[in-house]
Design goal:
Layout: H1 19-30, H2 37-44, H3 49-63, H4 67-74, H5 77-87, H6 90-102, H7 109-117, H8 121-135, H9 139-146, H10 149-160, H11 171-184, H12 193-202, H13 205-219, H14 223-230, H15 233-247, H16 249-261, H17 268-278, H18 283-294, H19 298-305, H20 308-318
Helix pairs in contact: 1-2, 1-3, 2-20, 4-5, 5-17, 5-20, 6-7, 6-8, 7-15, 9-10, 10-12, 10-15, 11-12, 11-13, 14-15, 15-16, 16-17, 16-18, 19-20
Length: 321
């Protein structure tokens, strides 16, 4: 894990948990005329993903119905997107967003970068295996068909090359790597992009932290400054995402949440994806970093950009500041 910090979720398993009772509550919320959206929010946001899977199983076993299908038929819009995200197992949810980013006309490269560049090698291997099972297509092949140039090569390396183990940390090696990056970029006319890709995709996150320190010692400039000076486009965005995540996962996601709500219109897909996927990981850390960076709470920022049941379910996942 990059940097030493204690991940703090906002959604925890319910201590007094009765899957059968929850299944009955959800059915009652959707039965007959109208839907009790608040009852659905109250149940799903107070249960862990593992508990939601148990509720779904009881719903099928005891009521003879498919919970996911019932939820789809009763909900719509962004509320439906949040609820369905909560009902998918975490790896399935990541695969869903990767597929969605590449399906149809055009490619959402920003989503590919965010999801792929913020995973460990083990997580990427699990995602790649499940992706092929779900969509009958290798993830790396799909990514290659939807991207090009240096970005394609970088994402391919991340998906096919395992990072060094966290225990393999070497300050002398970090010094050598810092020199290699300097010589591939700032020290020369032109840039050897392959050197940046090779080092930043193969070294462990812990080794990269040392590399960043050594680069600063060598050049008196942060690695971020070097990337900004030497690279551009989506390749730059991807390498910057790796650096940002290594520096601080909460800051990485806090920045993306802020950008999803900045300016005209809201990037609801990104907002939902991060809040749902991080709620059982480190959303509390992200909340704290968001407030430190932007001098406002994440809950208040979300409230100002959303409305109705959609806003309420996101704020339920975020928790009170």
């Amino acid at each position: 894990m990059p940097q030493v910090y204690t991940p703090k979720p906002t959604v925890l398993p319910a201590e007094e948990f009765d899957a059968s009772a929850d299944a009955a509550t959800l059915r009652a919320a959707m039965k007959g005329f109208g839907t009790d959206e608040q009852a659905i929010i109250d149940v799903l946001c107070a249960r862990s993903n593992c508990q939601r899977q148990q509720i779904s199983a009881k719903y099928s076993e005891e009521l003879g119905r498919d919970l996911l299908q019932d939820l789809k038929s009763e909900l719509s819009g962004n509320l439906e997107n949040v609820v369905l995200g909560l009902m998918l197992p975490p790896l399935n949810y990541q695969c869903h967003h990767l597929f969605k980013a590449m399906d149809g006309f055009g490619t959402n490269e920003r989503t590919l970068i965010e999801v792929i560049c913020s995973q460990s090698s083990e997580q990427l291997q699990q995602i790649a295996k499940l992706y092929e099972e779900l969509y009958n297509r290798p993830l790396v092949e799909h990514v290659c068909s939807e991207t090009s140039g240096d970005l394609r090569r970088l994402l391919t390396l991340l998906l096919t090359t395992a990072r060094d183990p966290p225990s393999k940390v070497d300050r002398d090696l970090a010094e050598q790597q810092a020199k290699q990056i300097f010589e591939a970029g700032e020290a020369n006319w032109g840039t050897e992009e392959s050197t940046f890709s090779k080092i930043l995709t193969r070294s462990s996150f812990e080794q990269l932290e040392l590399l960043f320190d050594e680069y600063k010692k060598l050049t008196q400039r942060a690695i971020e400054q070097a990337l900004n000076a030497e690279l551009s486009g989506k390749f730059y965005e991807a390498l910057s995402a790796i650096v940002e995540y290594v520096r601080s996962p909460p800051r990485f996601f806090a920045k993306r949440l802020y950008e999803a709500m900045r300016g005209l219109g809201t990037d609801d897909s990104t907002l939902i994806r991060i809040i749902v996927s991080r709620s059982e990981v480190d959303l509390q850390n992200i909340k704290e970093e968001f407030e430190r960076m932007y001098s406002k709470t994440l809950e208040n920022a979300v409230k100002s950009e959303t409305s109705g049941d959609y806003g309420r379910i996101l704020c339920a996942l975020i928790g009170k500041p």
